[in-house]
Amino acid sequence: MKEKNILIHKKCPYCFLDIANDEAGFLLNTDGARFISPALNDVATPKKDLPYVLFWNAMGVPEEQIDADRIIIDNQILTELNQELSTAGKTLAMKKYDSENYGYTFSAHEGAVNLYSNTMICPHCHNTLPQNFFRYDMLMVGMAGSVDSGKTVYISSLMMDGYHVLQRKNLTARNAAGSSGDRYYLEMEKNADLLFRQGICPGATSKAFRKPIFIELTYRIEDRTYPLIVAIYDVAGELIRENTGAGRTGFARHMDGFICMVDPAQMHLDHAVLTQNMPDEEQILQKLRILSQEEQISYQIQSNRNHKQRMDVGDFIKDSAHSDEYILERKAEMIMDSIRSGLGESLLHKKYMALTLAKSDKLEDIGEIRSYPASHLLFDREHVEYGFFNMEHHFLRQDILSEIFDQKVFRLQRNLEDYKASSLFVVSAIGCETEIVQDGAGEVTKAVGKVQPIRVEEPLLWLVMKYMQERGWLD
Ligand SMILES: Nc1nc2c(ncn2[C@@H]2O[C@H](COP(=O)(O)OP(=O)(O)OP(=O)(O)O)[C@@H](O)[C@H]2O)c(=O)[nH]1
Ligand SMILES: [Mg+2]
Ligand SMILES: [Zn+2]
User: Fold this and answer.
1) Index of the ligand 1 atom closest to the CA of residue 147
2) 326-338 pLDDT, tens per residue?
3) In terms of pLDDT, which residue wins out, 442 or 157?
4) pLDDT of 240 over the 80 cut
5) Which residue has the least CA distance to atom 29 on ligand 1?
């Protein structure tokens, strides 16, 4: 009996347009195979992939940085190829339904030489779809947080040592990237490996939309299994702040939830232990109000026209290191406001927010923090064997964190009310101090001692848990 093709629609994790599985194209890796028939040779030759170039260009990536020469088969190319093959009396190329994953594969052969691909691409933007894309649901998570708050290090920390921090007796995590040769994917893997083996932190993220990382998570309860794909989006801090609503940052509207990182550098602590102490918030905001909204926008447009990569602090105020702009970029409140204004109230009601105090290792020895009752729970390095995390400790931490946020990171919590659900977290992606050291090419930030993340997976697993609850998987 012939298996019936099932039609499935999903949202592309790059361009967010709808894709039906029978519309998917393919990325090919031919290793330079040659064919007798010119039509096959033509198809198997790398060419500048225009939809792909246009997409990444629009996302702010300069053309020379785009791996534009690719071998792509889409439905149109397939039809044309088969017309030529059939005229020449050759075996036709095939797009075959794969009942295992509701996807398709491509194959063509000429004698003993084969062309084959199961790497599907979006028909609109030509980006590679993750493995099992049409089979499983996808949870989309946006990393939010001001510049330097630790978003990229956070993702590297999750990826370290084969997603070690995410593994449980009843939870497995594995890479689900559709194409292992992807330049960006390789870079993220290298980042995670450098952090794990040498304690070296990745550098600042460029101001462009980046590909998400894809993780396949499988959760087991009794004899049932619940797989899903998690896509995590890392975006440079200043990009989120600028305009969450439009263009390349419109991605925020498509997220199921956010992990918003709060840098301890913006906490109001008596002790000047932290490198940057924030001046009075009201004062800064007051000064910035002098520049009206319109002025700020027109300034922004102008600086975009001048092809500036970012609004330069120096254009604004002389003393750049301590300018208001600089300080503001470090404020989680600005990020939360950008998300709110970009999404609007009604969309905000559909999103989850994991508000996360990052770099907690920096707070571990501070008396002010230590004086909160049960503060040791904030720095607990418990390793959970089973389930998502220790729920009892999680709820106790909510109370402590709520108080800390109230007293040390003013006004941030009022931002949480309109989300579908929110929760407070405190993590350290590195788990120890860092220092700046000279590396062949320049300066790098390096962990002092062994990298030992402190409950870094909790914000992500909370989002996963919410997502599963919503679908009734955990009832
Ligand atoms: N002590 C400590 N430092 C951290 C931790 N996580 C990040 N850092 C430091 O913070 C710096 C910035 O981290 P990134 O992950 O690059 O920050 P980001 O939010 O991605 O910054 P942009 O990409 O510029 O928006 C790192 O170079 C580290 O020095 C942590 O868990 N502990
Ligand atoms: Mg970054
Ligand atoms: Zn797409």
Assistant:
1) 25
2) 555 557 888 888 8
3) 157
4) no
5) 445
For residue 200, which amino acid is it? I
Angle between helices 151-163 and 183-198 (to 10 degrees): 80
Give how far Cα 340 sits from Cα of 243, 245, 335, 351, Å: 11, 9, 9, 11
Count of residues in the chain: 475
Confidence at residue 320, expressed as pLDDT on a 0 to 100 scale: 40
Rounded-to-integer distance, Cα 390 and Cα 196, Å: 25
Alpha carbon nearest to ligand 1 atom 21, residue: 148
Strands 224-233 and 421-426: unpaired
Q: How far is the CA of 51 from the centre of ligand 3 (A)?
A: 10
Number of helices followed by number of strands (H, E) in the chain: 14, 18
- Residues 64 and 40: beta-carbon distance below 8 Å: no
Residues with CB under 6 A from ligand 1: 145, 147-153, 201-202, 204-205, 236-237, 358-359, 361-362, 428-430, 433-434, 445
To test ligand 1's pocket by mutation, which of 213, 259, 434 has the most ligand atoms within 8 angstroms of CB?
434
d(CA 394, CA 403): 15
User: Do 22 and 31 contact (CB within 8 A), yes or no?
Assistant: no
Instruction: Give the number of other CB atoms < 10 A from CB of residue 198.
Output: 12
Give DSSP secondary structure letters for 332-385: HHHHHHHHHHHHHHHHHTT-EEEEEE--GGGGTT-HHHHTSTTGGGGG------
CA 145 / ligand 1 centre spacing (Å): 10
The Cα 259–Cα 424 span in angstroms is: 10
* Alpha-carbon torsion angle 179, 184, 189, 190, nearest 10: 140
Q: Is 54's pLDDT higher than 50?
A: yes
- At residue 94, φ and ψ (nearest 5 deg) are -125, 140
Q: What are the structure tokens assigned to 155, written together?
A: 């993702």
Instruction: Please tell me the predicted confidence (pLDDT) of residue 147.
Output: 81
Is domain 138-278+321-470 annotated with CATH 3.40.50.300?
A: yes
The ranges assigned to domains in the chain are 9-121, 138-278+321-470
